[in-house]
Amino acid sequence: MALEIKNLTKQYNKHKTGLSNYSITIDRGILGLLGPNGAGKSTLMKIIATISKPTTGTLFLDGEDIVKNPDNIRKILGYLPQDFGVYPNLNAYEFLEYIAALKGVGGPDLRKRIDMLLDGVNLTADAKRPIGTYSGGMKQRIGIAQALLNDPKVLIFDEPTVGLDPEERVRFRQLISDLANDCIIILSSHIVSDIEAIADEVAIMQNGTLLEKGTQPDIVKLVEGKVFETILDSQQLNDLKARHLVIDTSRQKDQTRARYITRDHQPEAGSIAVNATLEDAYLFLTHTKA
Predict the structure, then answer these.
(1) Could you tell me the fold of the domain covering 2-216?
(2) CA distances from 95 to 73, 194, 243 (A)
(3) Cα angle vertex 3, ends 71, 148, to 5°?
(4) Is the Cα dihedral 140, 179, 74, 33 positive or negative?
(5) Domain ranges in the chain?
(6) Which of 107, 188, 201, 103 is nearest to 152 (CA)?
(7) Strands ordered across the beta sheet of 29-34
(8) DSSP state, 267?
């Protein structure tokens, strides 16, 4: 299974472009989408989910045009949008049964599947409470469950870990990892550690364009040998920011430890080289390549 996207453009008006000549091939497994606000991640996901149509460009799922024939993907699609809404007066069982009816999912095993999903998102104990009484994180978890109802082969999650505590984020990552061998999973997040923990490949976006796509080691390789740490005072820190991309700082009494990426491979005197991370590569690309 593969999703092929070629020369995709989404023009909202003459002043606003969501995507610009965007091309990417997405294979089975987990693709992590990284990019700042306004990068085009949600626009891309809505087009793949057939909620929005591109201005120009093509999308093919296993050779089938899903712009012309959206039902080819809708019947195997699970989608959690960033602005997911619920019916507050329904409890979790009622809500998931309603969503199942909308998706055409039924049969004698439906209740068993709902029980399994509620257990997977840790909502079994609260399943009979009205969803309107749920916390933001609990509502997000019911959104994850509804996306999985129809045993989808294409899964799209737009910022799925927003509102989840660290333990719930780990549970979500484990749940998604178990599905990765059989599905195309597209996961957008501004939390780099979530992408780092589970993504087979990473696509970094900015201003509606694709900056880089590859495995995590391939992406990290772009900044290998460019990441350093040094300890300095406040005036030196200002000078460092003028010459290099400072990506993190931490106070140490009256001094500051700074992690930075050098653009010309010439580190400051007294700096030590450190191992590059996905976050380093992401910040480097979004600050220097677009």
Answers:
(1) Rossmann fold (3.40.50)
(2) 23, 27, 55
(3) 60
(4) positive
(5) 2-216, 224-288
(6) 103
(7) 77-80, 154-158, 184-188, 29-34, 201-206, 209-215
(8) P
Q: Which residue has the tokens 């699970």?
A: 78
User: What is the model's pTM?
Assistant: 0.90
What does the pLDDT look like over 178-237, one tens digit per residue?
A: 888 889 999 998 889 889 989 999 999 999 999 999 999 999 999 999 999 999 987 888
Here the tokens at position 50 are: 């057939």
The overall longest dimension of the chain from CA atoms, in Å, is 70
Q: What is the DSSP letter of 22?
A: E
| SS3 at position 75 | coil
- Cα separation, 114 vs 36, in Å, equals 35
Question: Of the candidates 52, 5, 51, which has an alpha carbon nearest to the alpha carbon of residue 25?
Answer: 5
Q: Which amino acid is at 277?
A: T
Q: Can you say whether residue 141 is alpha, beta or left, with left for phi > 0 and alpha for psi between -120 and 50 degrees?
A: alpha
As beta bridge partners, residue 239 has: none
Residue reference for tokens 């191992």: 275
Given a contact cutoff of 8 angstroms between Cβ atoms, the answer to whether 80 and 143 are in contact is yes
H or E, element range at 258: strand 255-261
